[in-house]
Amino acid sequence: MTKLFGAAPDPKGEMQQAVEKFLGKKLQITWVPNAEYADKVNVTLASGNVPQLMVVDPHGPAFVKAAQAGAFWDLTDKLDKYPNLKPTDKLRVLNASINGKSYTIPRMRPMLRSAVMIRKDWLEKLDLKLPESVDDLYTIAKAFTEKDPDGNGKKDTYGLIIPKWPGKYASSSPYDTLETWFGAPNGWGERNGKLVPGFDTPEFLEANKFLKKMIDEGLVNPDFASYDTAKWDDPFFQGKGGIIIDVNVRSRALLDKFRDDGDKNYGDRVAMVGNLKRSDGQKFSLPFTGYNDAIAISKQNVRTEQDLDNILKVLDKLGTKEGQVLVQNGIEGRNFKAEGDTAALINETDPAVRVVQDNVDQAFTQLGFKGDTTYGGLAYARTPSGQPYKDMIKLGLDLMNEDLKTAVNNPALPVVSPTAVAKGAQLDDIIPDARIKYLSGEINEEQLKAEIKRWYDAGGTQVATEINDLVSKLGTN
């Protein structure tokens, strides 16, 4: 069972047939739309009918409960004999662990992806430079709002485009990114010798005061509190807004929109910079976990050590370069050709080939767990032909390598608080909801602080105690 970002592939279609032929196994895949995936995971775990392989959030409360209850295989010491599954990056594995135990195979992603995408043509029209600091970001957002960057003679544009983020606090949202730039911890950080949640710091409040000022001045899309992340690119493409704070691969998605619309100058529409400095010149960059979900193996349908070995052998074959290229790039010579470390799309006007490419992009890439060559993985970077894409890939890599020097890591990533698991439903929404209400003007700063206190009173105090205890024990293992 895994995620789906479009139409479900035909089980008898070219892509599934190619994967089955490569593995020598028939596949029965339950594709679940991304927006429904978290709910489907919870329902599936509760049903007792768990598939052999399942893509999960390794720290999702329902999965943690199930794994610790023995519903999934503990893989901590089992992967070393499989050459393509043997962990090569201990930090990624540790980040995805549950208090040091690995119940999953993390799906590799870059260690740092945060970036800022900006309408390049608007910058040039207003004779503005790329931002280096949060103050520059404000200046550009104000100019994009007030100085008619699209040249239509109307005041109908704004600077920053942000959505209502569906995830919990510290889920790499633009809100979290901005808070990190101001010096707030990334999730959890040390203050006075103890780990505290990032939202219980002065820097968290300063960042949100800054963002609220931008919102109050009309420099942000007015519907930010309810805006759907699925439509995040639209105002940028439609010429309504000019700045997006997100992962760097969004730059390529934005190029796609302009290119697919027939804009021959699509490369002149999107600029990108990395993490921004604070007003005092200090820089704090938001890193990623190094993985995006992970593959877990159910004990319900993989009952014995021999069954587990059979499954791991299949995954080991899928983990070869050939296997990862197949699921993340497609069929070489059919929908892409290799050009160095990138996959150049071919036959793009052929409807049958378009189906293959869509199957890869929207579905089968979810079976990939080794990433692409851009960030040290095995598959080719999934990139349409064209110099703007090649330039953007190189820029993204350069920015990532630079920002890793100032990355603010979360020391609590490898541990899971039992209280957070038990009371996640009550705790997880308190801070994101309060933040949105504060930014929208529904509550003031004192009421925001009261919501932070409510988080502690509702179980957060115990969570903090457990996080500190677990992290200290992790250091002694």
UniProtKB/TrEMBL annotation:
Keywords: Cell membrane, Lipoprotein, Membrane, Palmitate, Signal
Family matches, as Pfam families: SBP_bac_1
Entry keyword Lipoprotein: yes
InterPro entries xref list: Bact_solute-bd_prot1, SBP
Keyword Membrane: yes
Cross-referenced CDD domains: PBP2_AlgQ_like_1
Domain of life per record: Bacteria
Protein name from the UniProt record: Extracellular solute-binding protein
Species for this entry: Nonomuraea helvata
